[in-house]
Amino acid sequence: MMKVHHSPVLLNESLEYLITDKTGVYFDGTLGFGGHSQGILHNLKNDGRLISTDVDRDAFNFSKEKFKTDDRIKIYNFNFMQIDLISKIESIPLYNGIFADLGVSSFQLDNPDSGFTYRTDAKLDLRMDKSKVVTASDIVNSFSEEELADIFYKYGEEKNSRQIARKIGEKRRTKKIESTTDLSELISSVTPYKYRIKTLSRVFQALRIYVNDELGALKDFLTKSVDRLVKGGRIVILTYHSLEDRIVKESFKYETLDCICPKDYPVCKCDKESRLKILTKKPLTPTEKEVKINIRARSAKLRAAERI
Ligand SMILES: C[S@@+](CC[C@H](N)C(=O)[O-])C[C@H]1O[C@@H](n2cnc3c(N)ncnc32)[C@H](O)[C@@H]1O
Hints:
Elements: H1 11-18, E1 25-28, H2 35-43, E2 49-53, H3 57-66, E3 73-76, H4 83-90, E4 95-101, H5 106-110, H6 136-142, H7 145-156, H8 161-172, H9 180-189, H10 196-211, H11 214-227, E5 229-239, H12 242-256, E6 276-278, H13 288-293, E7 301-307
Parallel strand pairs: 1-2, 1-4, 2-3, 4-5
Antiparallel strand pairs: 5-7, 6-7
Helix pairs in contact: 1-2, 7-8, 7-10, 11-12
Bound molecules: S-adenosylmethionine.
S-adenosylmethionine binds at residues 6, 8, 29-30, 32-36, 53-56, 59, 79-80, 101, 103-105, 128, 217.
């Protein structure tokens, strides 16, 4: 079994919000290397159940081995958007708690073969699900400069997006951009030294979000999850950047509304029902102590809500 160093972020806080019934049924949409799933299992009695899934094949294989002796957990290698399909296979209509810890795992970031970071030289890939066809390299080499600039701006909030896209256009006329190093050298060449690390992170984040349609998957998962909670069941989501956090915040807010009619309607004509009560008015963030031990926790935000 490969070695993985991983500390699950905001573990105790996540479990406190998530688990309301130790004999209940839970769903972990981002299994990774099983940190949070293990925490959930520790808190469940013998008749509790956990369904966990991850799109990443390595994460799936690792965790399948890790939990092979615990028959309370079933593991899938599906996108969390497939929660309806998984639930059908498992004959589970509703869950007591649904959890997701978004983004990429420490293993994906540290593994030189996965090409998730500008810090190591690898193929410019960025797919979590390797069965998908389009890689980051395909996008960087075929999209127009304008389309690339839009991706960097929209998904990386990168202000220098146009200049970076222009440089990509110029470079690829002579040589395809195939590796993380090709891209990071090119970004560095148009970025002042003191902004380099942040710019590199933002551009790689933007491409990763686009390649994996992370925001589309999140919106879809949040809606389906509310459909799949028992009354009193909880949804707990950990995000790592403002784009994800905004989607979770707005989706929870929308689910609290019991009317979405235009303001000038004298009476309500919609059949909207309020389905969630927000449990975290402000998102929870890690303590300084946790961030000291686990630097990846630094940007984490936890939001939780309860099905009413
Ligand atoms: C931050 S890690 C989760 C770590 C995990 N909580 C643990 O403690 O080991 C995020 C994981 O979610 C997976 N992932 C991201 N988006 C996904 C999606 N739409 N469906 C399923 N898995 C996804 C990634 O492949 C990655 O392994």
